[in-house]
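Example record

The entry below shows one chain as it appears in the dataset: sequence first, then structure tokens.
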Amino acid sequence: MNTVKQITISGGGSWATALTKIFAESGTSVCWHLRSDKHVEALQRRGRNPNYLSYLELPMQHIRPVSDFEEAAASADYVLFAIPSSYLESSVTPFDPRLLENKHVIVSIKGVVTSQNLLPSDFLARHFGLDSSRLAVIGGPCHAEEIAMERKTYVTISSENRELAGTLAGSITSHYIRTIVNTDPVGVEYAAILKNVIGIACGIAQGLNYGDNFQAVLVANALREIRQFLNTIQGKERDLSQSAYFGDLLVTAYSEFSRNRTFGHMIGRGYTVQLAHMQMNMVAEGYSAVKGIYGLAKESGLEMPIVSAVYRILYNHISPYIEFRLLENKLV
């Protein structure tokens, strides 16, 4: 089986840190693109990311941090993007579209490029002129914090190119990681985005003092909304009980590590959106994602009560209490 000998990872957050750990400890040489020389120097000096998962010692013998994206992109035939979707456009548009010519691009971004309402993979494909056979998506229920603690984790690698997905999967040999190959990158990517919106809804419910009984109904209805959305966007046979879909939804809905749930909980407790953002050290991708998903649902004539409720709370500033009382009557 072919394996990845060198990979470039762009992103300095907790998830990019976890991915760097996974590949580097599997023996892959990682060129880690960070946003500034200051971040590079701190990582070289400490062997840790000073801003995220700062307790995690990284296998620096396999990691070369750089702050120049062109240098990083030239270092490997595989380039993995793991940066917040809200920063993706500004991060890559200054660079020549030919920069990633003939390279494989992997996306692990659970948000929407809101300026164009595109999946991150679609945005990158358009900007760099990439064929779908050179694209892959990494998803699944995989919180960075649990990867740092080396807790058993199932990671899905999805691509229309099964050989590419298999090569990436075969390159991850960490004893606590199991890889799953999937050929539904659009479904996996959208499911990862939608579950963040649902995570916010679950957090709001918790903040409003709804109990486990209600949240179980909320998650069950959320799965219905996700199935309806995916079938409308791309009619394709897929098993939503797989971990990349339902598993990712569950971990975001219930886990203490879910930043979207945490963000929603603050909204439910009465925080303004601005104050909730200020209180968090990490980006809640569901905030920007719900705007794009809500727009796509309206264009497609889809009824998505949970997504609509979250959108109105966050963007129309409707009372969470009022929205959820109305939502109660739409759940089954």
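Notes for this example: The longest strand covers residues 153-158. Residues 185-207 form the longest helix (23 residues).
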